[in-house]
Task: structure prediction
Amino acid sequence: MEVGKRNNKQREEELDFASIPKNSGFKETFFRLCRNKAAVAGMVFLVLLILISVFADVLFDYQTTCVDQTISQRLQWPSAEHWFGTDEFGRDLLARVVHGSRISLSIGVAAVAFGLLVGGILGAVAGFFGGMVDNVIMRACDVFLAVPMMLMAIVIVAALGASITNLVVALAISSVPTFARIVRSAVLGVRDMEYVEAARAVGVKTGRTIARYILPNCMGPIIVQTTLRIAATISNTAALSFLGLGVKPPQPEWGALLSSGREFIRDSAYLACIPGVCIMLTILALNLLGDGLRDALDPRLK
Amino acid sequence: MLRYIGKRILYMIPVLLGVTLLVFFIMHLAPGNVAAMILGENATAEQIAELEHEMGLDRPLLAQYAAYLGGLLRGDLGTSYTSGESVTAKIMACFPYTVRLALVAAVVSVLLALPLGILAAVKQNTWVDNVSMVISLIGVSMPIFWLAVMLILLFSLKLGWFPVYGAKSWNSIVLPAISLGFMNMASIARTTRSSMVETLRQDYIRTAYAKGLSKGAIVIRHAFRNGMLPTITVIGLEIGQMLGGAVLTETVFAWPGVGRMMIQAINGRDTPTVMGCIVLLTVCFSFVNLIVDLLYGVVDPRVRTMYR
Amino acid sequence: MKKSLSLKRCAAFLLAACMVLSLLAGCGGGGGEKEPSNSTPSADNPDASGGAPAGKDSLTVALTDEPDYLSTCDHDSLMGVQMNLLTYNGLIRIDMETLSPVCDLAESYTQDSDLEWTFRLREGVKFHNGEELTAADVAASIQYAQTFAASAIYTGSMEKVEALDSNTVKITTSAPTPNLLFDLGYHFNFILPKSLIDSGNDFSANPVGTGPWKFVSWDKGNSIQFEAFDGYFDASRKAAIQNLEFVMIPEGSTRTMSLEAGDVDFVYSVASSDIDRLRSDESVTVEQVVSVENFFLFLNTVTTAFEDENLRKAVAYAINREDIVAGALNGYGTPSYSCVSMGYAESTDEGSYTYDVDKAKEYMAAWGGDPSTVTLDIICSNATKTAIATIMQNQLSAIGINVTINEMDSATYQEQMRTTDLVSAIVSWSPANAMTYVQRFHSTRRQNTPAGMADAHMDELVEEMNTTMDAGARTGMIQTIIRESNDRCWFVPIYQVNYFRAHAAGLQNVVCSATGYVDFCTMHW
Result:
């Protein structure tokens, strides 16, 4: 009989429910997303933010607003002339926030994306397979959690030099164990569900099982952690700049703006608070969009 | 279960080995000559070499590491390069403060975050949800020294309820714990909300409603427990982070914890102290992760198979 | 069950309300106007302080960093010396107001020859453990100090220290040493009990000396406690306050708030952003001291384009020091135009620089090179230095010099200074007197900073000054050295630090020295 001779691949192709074309395409997901007002607000904000950071040079001339100093005008509170006030060297804070958005967001997103990719794969593998694999990966994560980021940064500068890429690497390394543990716990909660069992019974390969069945059901905690890690990464960038990694004065960067406001927190609190609020709004927007996407893709909500 | 715990404790050994090896080599790769720093800028090259010899720093790296491990096995963490005291004494002077702060801050965090997250999930997409999201994001985006200074200005200077700095009296822990707890609650609140949102969509919740159970009973008895896995993970991660990384809080409130001491030791290239702190923190992280993993089994019976 | 939900709702509202309240509290404190602090010292608010109440017999001082050692020879840090001044004495004391050497444990001294000095000790001086001071203790202490490599500069000149009888000490130096009195006033040479030296006492855990304060306890990371020593030999400098406590508060704004709340009585180092506020607070007095510590731009005169004097001078004239002080120090510093700090008896500003961009451009032309080939890379080890460098970066672009700022941690910075890899650095330097200051111009300093200047003529001038015993002649020589170094511009001076210390207004007679110390003996409530 032919059945016995059919190979696994053919069976998989016949019975792989995941490859059945969905009714909902990209367009339908988009429309469902648009019904969620909060997600739309988030999307609009992010698009605006991207546009502002891309056209930063057009809005504010870098040299005159971010580099040239007017010491006599230092530490002025927001006014009609300077909407966000001036910093400790008399430079316009709004211009510096706008110019800083480009580099801060790219560094934040790149570092977290890298951390998510590596950490996510490690966590998924650890959670799914369990046993010795789980043990080895988790113990390796423990090792990296214990090493302080500052130490890692000093050594990266000494060994590899002080560039933006190395900054992203240092930041990403500190995110990997967190993502690994989060993804692992989410996978643990889902891997014994009936639909996973069903997929395996039918012969779906492990990689596909993880990618198509398990991970989409873990998106909640992953979205949350990703957006929060971006905020933490931006804050950490300043600490690493003090050690030489990454952004050098006079280039503006949100994390550096945050930390240079520390000295003036009592009389000129706006110096630290305004960048903080900008970070908060960005994270808020990302979060709303992320939640909206997850809801739009959730079949249970159709 | 006991076998599992035993195995995990045994696994701490390779982790400690890995961490100490990694950090040892990192400290030696880091630029900076501790003997020169101790002797000051007037020291000659001969004097520096002599001090290095005295401190055993001119031996091959692996020999130094082996000596350190030998000491570690005997329970001797060495002597600090910069202050000459025993590292064990130095760390034991600071560690209880760090633990106290981390635990109280974790309690504050959880007490703030859980209700916030559950409320946000139950009232998803209403203004309550959005306000609670903003509150939890304040902690993550605003710098901690801002919140700390605001708290001190209000509660110490204007009202005089709590001391400004330090750890002298019983109520010194309140402001630092509130700052630290508030800063770290975002993760817990948001994760709780997101898990609860997914759990509340499950069919068995619909069944419970249909059965006529009240909202509170459903939320607390059915939805809450089932969505807890990621939340427990995140609480564990936050406690771990607070144990080792509450440096800014400790600095602003002059709280004599391990975080600050470790940063000073790194700056001073005081390798024994750094190693000692990291050994301690590794043991702590391992225990926290162990407890979190055990709690998975308690909360979610499906996960218990892992422990056989 | 609905109750539990509304309870949760109430909790969330309460939380939001607390946040708003504290935001308002914060806004009230800093709306751009400088309102006088409306906090009350602890006399009115006894619950405010968590620690010991600041009564008339105790003083709580907030420090930034904890000293590593309470012993005399294991350190060379400012805070360490401040602690030493409490529990020990030397043969000589450097007076905090005049910065001149004054007899302390020595009642008198004579200089018998170029190389021989005899000191007569006071009678009846007691150590904290009851033992009486003898010449044997003096000899043992100095010999003990000489075993420490780091003390060489201050003890190396003394070839022999002998106890001629129980209260006469004879010191023989290997070469004429005009600086001997200053050296003896240095903490390495403070006197310890011979019996404790011989028994291997840990002077950091048990600092026994003859000083006006007795050590009580050290809670590491938290506080160090001293009490007044009743048996102190010098009645005019006996401690007026019974209990002295030092607490560690690393954050500037927290120190200020502690003082405002009355939790501490004295802040050793006030953050410059809080000076205005404290000055307008009537319950607080702010002491300002123009110190001799100065910050300068160190230049690699060996392997970079800055070996050319004209290029160095261009930089010296192109920077606006007033703006640097205003921008990086909130206005609280003294611009420095001369290579050696002003404030020493021998200081002079002959040949010093000004802010003159046109002159700077002339020097650039005199140098004749292409500015785009020169990058002035400045290494910085803390936020203040970075701020200074950022302002200089902006100012130097006016003469075409491109500045890059290289931040690094302190240990890496010190390592870089010991190489010739760096281009420039912002350095601070705080010697106790002009004689020590100008040693910097001698090439023996090169072994530690190989990128620094080395000039045979300067070496001659410094060596001559070192061996001149006559104070008047020495002054002239020091001034020659200063003029010469201003002329050659080995490094670019930026500003002299102003120390700001603040304390409760009730504390009287607070003496702060220009070298960075505070006299805790003379102050009283």
Residues 87-122 of chain B form the longest helix (36 residues). Chain B touches chain A through 62 residues (CB under 8 Å). The mean pLDDT of chain B is 88. Residues 63 and 151 of chain B are 50 Å apart (CA to CA).
